[in-house]
């Protein structure tokens, strides 16, 4: 774990223990930070990606919490400045910026990079079903070929047996006529 410690001259400090987070779609992630300051702090989180910049949440320690409507049911805030994002999607990938502002106006900034990956269960499921289907069709074809082979052998035996009997009768008939 890499510790990123940022400190401003006014006495505000911020620790970002995990500056890079890898997540999969539908996972919950914790954007963990720890701040300290002498007075009351205002914490603000923003998300920046190729789709633009979105303010996620802003709150004053011990007072109000203002969560944007886009994140209303997906964000949990913690007193140490951390937030939890529920049910992440591909659009949640990007940079998360935290700003901690002390009541006297001193700011400290932190950044967390979030990468979100898709799980390709649907593709794996399709491949597994296709493989099972092909295996079943192969087994049926092998059984059909075995039955055809057995039937052919039985037919050849009967034909050979009939030919042998008729040839013997012809030979007997020929000897009697002489």
UniProtKB/TrEMBL annotation:
Glycoprotein in keyword set: yes
Gene Ontology CC terms, in alphabetical order: axon; dendrite; plasma membrane
Record-linked SUPFAM superfamilies: Immunoglobulin (SSF48726)
Membrane-crossing residue ranges in chain numbering: 124-148
Record's keyword annotation contains GTP-binding: no
Subcellular location(s) of the protein: Membrane
Name under which the protein is recorded: V-set and transmembrane domain-containing protein 5
Lineage: Eukaryota, Metazoa, Chordata, Craniata, Vertebrata
